[in-house]
Amino acid sequence: DKIHYADITISAVSPSQYPDDGIPEIVLAGRSNVGKSSFINTMVNRKNLARTSGKPGKTRTLNFFNIENELFFVDVPGYGYAQVSNAEQEKWGVMMNEYFATREELVLGVLLVDFRHEPTNLDIQMYEFFKYFNIPVLVVATKSDKIKKSKHNKHTSMIKKALKLESEDTFYPFSSVTKEGRKEIWNEILAYTRN
Ligand code: GDP
């Protein structure tokens, strides 16, 4: 449960810069502000490993976080900023395709969505993008502390239905405030990386 070592290894803009350790990778995707940085920090018990709420559109890199020399969290730039140009979006797409199409180390996709809301079209596209590349998906529904327990089932169904979540994929509510889901998500991740 305790994480002793977690550090950013590289912010890569091209495949030649990806790490060559051969250790498994978990890619993390979600729209900007969904709580992805908070998720990373909570999972590894760090306050500031991933920067929370940095400038939108600024990070156009894949950030590889080495966790215990056992796996990488690969943080991809958040999507869905209004102010990002078509050229920027195009670059994002190229970078994502390069990574997803060729990366053998990639064992699991984590898609972060906001537990409070219907997934956006971009969330659905991201889910389909994972499925297109045959990557199993773990959906993390963030900010669960903002939803009453009595409404959890309703929101869970809403999100699974909108994404058309397949049976091999998994879903967990998560909160970086209460740490709900942290343990279950670690178990799920380790089931993929330790195989
Ligand atoms: P990112 O842009 O996806 O990296 O999102 P951040 O991690 O920076 O979070 C965006 C905002 O949501 C910040 O104001 C966080 O404090 C807040 N936030 C993130 N996770 C949670 C959570 O689990 N519960 C609550 N209540 N707020 C959260």
TrEMBL record:
Ranges of residues in domain EngB-type G: 22-195
Keyword Nucleotide-binding part of the UniProt annotation: yes
Superkingdom: Bacteria
Tagged with keyword Metal-binding: yes
Transmembrane regions: none
Pfam families per the UniProt record, alphabetical: MMR_HSR1
Coiled coil: none
Family: Belongs to the TRAFAC class TrmE-Era-EngA-EngB-Septin-like GTPase superfamily. EngB GTPase family.
UniProt function note: Necessary for normal cell division and for the maintenance of normal septation.
This protein's name: Probable GTP-binding protein EngB
